[in-house]
Amino acid sequence: MSSLTHYLVIDLEATCSDDPSFPRDEMEIIEVGAVLVDAGTLRPAAELQCFVRPIRHPRLSAFCMRLTSIRQADVDAAPRFPAAAARLRELVRGKQALFCSWGGYDKRQIERDARRHGVALPFGGDHLNLKRAFARRLGAERELGVGQALRRVGLSFQGTQHRAIDDARNIARLLPHALGLEPHPAGVPGSPAVTGPPAASPGPPAPPAPRGAR
To answer: Are 191 and 201 contacting, i.e. CB atoms less than 8 angstroms apart?
Structure first.
C-alpha cells in the first residue's frame, strides 16, 4: 500500500456456543472494536466501538455472554452489520489505512459478514497479520495470544478480555513491537506478514501515549 497514513487495528466478537452443533460458518459479528493508529507516530488517533445485531442466531448463547460479557440487550438495541460497516468507512474516510488484526480470524469473519449482507468493506484487500508479524519479529517458536504477547514485552492487559474494543486497544499497544520499532527481549528481526503489497514503513515512532483488550 502506497502513501500509508494509518493502521486500522480491528478486533471482533461474534456469536458462538459451546454446543458442537453450532455451525462455525454461521457465526456473526456482535461487536466491532477498531483503533486507528497514526503510521508516523504509532499513536492512536481515533477509535470506534459498536455492537451489531445478528440475524441468523439473534439469541446469544449463555456461553457467548459469559465469554464476551456482551448482554442480549446490547445486541437487541444494536444496528445491523451494514451500519457498523458504514461507521468503519467514516472512521477511515480520507485516509490510507492498512487493515490489521491479531491473526487471520477477524479478516475472515468481517469478509464473511460483508458477503452475507452484500456490503463493501471500507478498506482494500491488504491485511497485516500482527500475530504472525509479532512472532517473527521476536523469533518466537509459536504465535502468541494477545495476553501472552503483552507479557512478553513487559506489558499487562488493560480492560476486559474478549471485548472487541479492549482487545483492539491492547493490540494497538503491540503494533510497534510487531513492526520492529520498539525494543523487546528477543530482539530477533523479521518481516511483517502482509497480504498484498507491503506497507510503507513509518518513521521512528514517538513514545506511545498513555492509555487509560485477548
So the answer is: no
